[in-house]
Amino acid sequence: LDNTLGKCNICHFNAGANGNPAIFGAGAGNQSFNTGVEALPDQPADLSGELNPPDDGFGVPGNGLFNTPPLVEAGDTGPFFHNNSVETIEAAVGFYDGESFNNSPAGQLLVGTTGSGIELDATQIVAVAAFLRVLNAVDNIDQSDARLRKTEAARHHFSADDLTIVVADIDDAIADLAVASLHPEAVKQLRSARAATKKAAEHNFKTSALRGAIAALGRAR
Question: How many whole angstroms separate alpha carbon 136 and alpha carbon 119?
Answer without folding.
Answer: 24
